[in-house]
Amino acid sequence: MFPSFCDSHTHIVYAGSREGEFADKIRGLSYEEIAKRGGGILNSAKKLHNTSENELYDQSLERINEIIQLGTGAVEIKSGYGLNTDDELKMLRVIRRIKESSPVEVKATFLGAHAVPDEFRDRREDYVDKVINEMIPVVASEDLADYIDVFCDTGFFTVEDTERILMAGLKYGLIPKIHANELGFSGGVHTGVKYNALSVDHLERSGDEEIEVLSGSDTMPTLLPGSALFLGLPDPPARRMIDAGLPVALASDYNPGSSPSGNMKLIMSLGCIRLKMLPEEVINAVTINTAYAMGISETHGSIARGKVANIFITKQIPSFEFFPYAFGSNLIDTVILRGKII
Ligand code: NIG
Ligand code: FE
User: Fold this and answer.
1) What is the domain range of residue 65?
2) Atom number in ligand 1 closest to CA 18
């Protein structure tokens, strides 16, 4: 019996898929090159714009039901494929509908600053102004988000943009959780810690300085080995983080561009195989540590008296180590959410 996974970083509400870019990547294009050609996040934004709210809900719910069967009991979901006020609100309303209709626990994050839309090409700062002056106030007034995120990375948003957005969000009580140091040594980890982010996520480009900044902070370093694998990025220094006394969380980053999978059992295996984490360390990393990174560790992330009964029972296995070891087998037999068999 395991506590259900808490997946603290996903973009599971999206329209369609991007397997054409998958093939482009195999042919040799990088994630940044694809983005520059209007692919990537902007491609998903176009698809989302042309998809009705009901259809977006249906597509997303199918993925939610899939991850429930794969053992996930709580999920954080980001906006960020809207990139204009109406479409960002559409995404956030779909997240709210999932929260109301599914037994999975849901936290919503506003990620208006995920990419600069075409209309603002070469006017990035004007887009940041729009996020601050137009989007954040309405997202907050409709109570559509718990957290706020910025893609603080090379080619996307700068530290200055990120600081402005986080300050604006904090005025409305939106706690930061940010994308940092995936593509470059972006300063995102430092910024996240400075603004007391609940988590800083990705961290493929991290060295001693980032580890030192995180030490003694309340910010959870969250690694996303699915996207590092899928994009062929360097592996983040999980071992060095743990050896320095840091906790580490592992999440799926389920999204159409860099990690088209929400399989948290596979994420556990990648933590062991790629990041050299021990089976007991990855179990903590996908349950209690990700619960912390979603702000729900009081009620989720472990099996304990008084907590929500989110549990899965495996098929018969010889040891707990067998679970991440058998990386291609599902092994989940029974899923229980809120005390009920699903
Ligand atoms: O976490 N890095 C930024 N955002 C996503 C990718 C989104 C996409 O490519 O659609 C990520 O990897
Ligand atoms: Fe992400």
Assistant:
1) 2-307
2) 10
Mutate to test the pocket of ligand 1, among 10, 13, 32, 41 (most ligand atoms within 8 A of CB): 41
Residue 340's pLDDT is what? Answer: 98
Q: Taking CB atoms and a 6 Å cutoff, what residues make up the pocket around ligand 1?
A: 11, 40-41, 44, 151, 179, 182, 227, 253, 255-258
- From the CA of 260, the nearest ligand is 1
pLDDT in tens, 72-118: 999 999 999 999 999 999 999 999 999 999 999 999 999 999 999 99
Q: Find residue 180's DSSP bridge partners.
A: 152, 202
How many structural domains are present in the chain? 1
pTM over 0.90: yes
Is the model's pLDDT at 37 over the cut of 90?
no
Which amino acid, 271? G
What's the CATH code of the domain at 169? 3.20.20.140
Residue 231 dihedral angles phi and psi, to the nearest 5°? -95, -5
Q: State the distance between the two ends of the chain, measured CA to CA, in whole angstroms.
A: 15
Q: Is residue 17 part of a domain?
A: yes
Residue 81 lies in a domain: yes
How many Å apart are CA 303 and CA 223, to the nearest integer?
A: 23
- Give the nearest ligand 1 atom to 202 CA: 1
